[in-house]
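Thread: "does anyone have the structure for this chain?"

Original post by V.I.:
We have the sequence but no experimental structure in hand. Need at least a predicted one for the grant figures.
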Amino acid sequence: MCVRLLSRVLCLFLLYLVAAYVRVGYGVEDVHVVALFKDRVAVMIDGKRRLLGKGETSPEGVTLVSADSNGAVFRYQGQTLQRQLDGRVRAAKPTAATGSEVQVFRDLQGMFRTVGSINGLPVSFLVDTGASSIAMNANQARRLGIDHLVVGDPTYVATASNVEQAYRLKLDVVKVGDIALRNVDAVVMQGAQPSEVLLGMSFLNRLELVNQGDKLIMRRKY
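Reply from O.Q.:
Generated one for you, tokens below.
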């Protein structure tokens, strides 16, 4: 009796190990990069959103090796996975009722960052409701082909520590996901600040914003 019961328990245990092995061996099917930053990435792994820093491993066993504006490199079960930004995950499809909609998630630092474009060139944005307009520094403007000294109007902008010379101008097209707005006010600051391009209220005021804690939903008003 005891021998028969022990054999049954041992058999069930072996079946459990085989099932566990099959599940682990089956592994991750889908890895999509949602947003890229220096040594950080937001990634969808089999439909679950993960925020990973360099060297960190997700619960699914996917490790971020490196990340920059060009793409991300992961390690999973001894294999190297290279992924580029997948915009299909970042932007929801437009609907007849609400128009274009974009979902932006908080990053590892608790900030809302997303990718988009200015005048057709790619940009990483920091969403900043405290900025009255889109803001960038002179080097960022030059990279985007914006000659702020020629097309901009001189002004001054108060920062947390100083008053900086800046130039006001309009951007032809600013796009995030499926949302594209034209003639958007911006300022270009002569110094090194801001270190990131700020997606300010000259863009955000023209949208409906819904803050759901770890997710910001942006919709076109019209």
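V.I.: this helps a lot. The helical segments are 2-26, 87-90, 138-143, 148-151, 201-204.
O.Q.: and Confidence is low (pLDDT under 50) at residues 13-26, 87-99.
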